Amino acid sequence: MIVIGSDHGGFALKQEIITYFEEQNIVYKDVGCYSEEACDYPTFGKQVGEAVASGEYEKGIVICGTGIGISIAANKVKGIRAALCHDCFSAEATRLHNNANVLAMGARVIGSGLALKIVQTFLGTRFSDDERHIRRITQIEEQS
Ligand code: RB5
Q1: Around Cβ 35, how many Cβ atoms within 10 Å?
Q2: What average pLDDT is seen over the chain?
Q3: Which pLDDT does position 72 carry in this prediction?
Q4: In what order do the strands lie in the sheet with 28-30?
Q5: Would you state the pLDDT for residue 86?
Q6: pLDDT at residue number 74
Q7: Is the peptide bond before 33 cis (omega within 30 degrees of 0)?
Q8: Which of 4, 20, 105, 119 has CB 3.0 to 4.6 Å from 61, enough for a Cys bridge?
Q9: pTM confidence score
Q10: Domain range for residue 113?
Q11: Cα–Cα distance between 93 and 87 in angstroms, integer?
Q12: Could you give the CA distance from residue 8 to residue 40 in angstroms, rounded to a whole number?
C-alpha cells in the first residue's frame, strides 16, 4: 500500500497521481493536504514518513513545490530514505541502490507526465539486494 501527501504547492500533482492510482486499482492513503490553501510541508512529510516507518505502508510519495522541503521533513523520520527524483534514471537507481522507501518530487519543477513515469519507475523497481548496497544502507541506519 502507498501513502501520499503534499503541501499546497504539490496538491494538483498529488491529485493527478491519485487519479492514476484509481485507474490502476493501486491501493493508497492520502494524508493531505486537501486543497490549494497554503499549508506547511513539514506536517505532511512527517505524516508520510511515520506511516511508512511504522510498516503500515510499503512506500510513500511526498510532493511540494520543489520537493526539497518535504523530502527533508520525511528524512527526519528514523528508517526513512526519501529520494528527491526528477528523472527516471534517479528513480530507478534509488530503488536499486538505496532501497528508497519514499519518493519526493517538486510539482513546480517537472510536469505531470514525467512525474507519473517517475512514480511508475519508482514503484516498479525492486531493491537489488546487493551486499554492497545493504552494507551502505546499514551504515546510514547506524548514523541515526
Ligand atoms: C511553498 O511555497 C514552498 O516553499 C514549498 O512547496 C516547497 O517548495 C518547499 O520546499
Answers
A1: 9
A2: 98
A3: 98
A4: 28-30, 2-6, 59-64, 102-106, 82-84
A5: 98
A6: 98
A7: yes
A8: 4
A9: 0.98
A10: 2-143
A11: 10
A12: 8
Q: What is the pLDDT of residues 43-64, one digit of tens each?
A: 999 999 999 999 999 999 999 9
Percent helix, strand, coil in the chain (nearest 5)?
A: 50, 15, 35
Q: Indicate which residue of 8, 86, 88, 97 is catalytic.
A: 97
At 27 the pLDDT is 98
Q: Which atom, in ligand 1's list, is nearest to the CA of 7?
A: 6
Answer yes or no: 88 catalytic.
no
Q: Which atom of ligand 1 is nearest to the CA of 108?
A: 8
The stretches in the chain having pLDDT less than 70 are: 144
Q: What pLDDT score was predicted for residue 130?
A: 98
CATH number at residue 29: 3.40.1400.10
Count: domains in the chain: 1
Residue 75: what pLDDT?
98
Location of C-alpha cell 528523472: 87
Location of C-alpha cell 554492497: 132
DSSP string, 71-89: HHHHHTSTT--EEE-SSHH
State which of 7, 8, 39, 108 you would mutate to test the pocket of ligand 1, scoring each by most atoms of that ligand within 8 A of its C-beta: 7
For residue 5, the cross-strand partners are 62
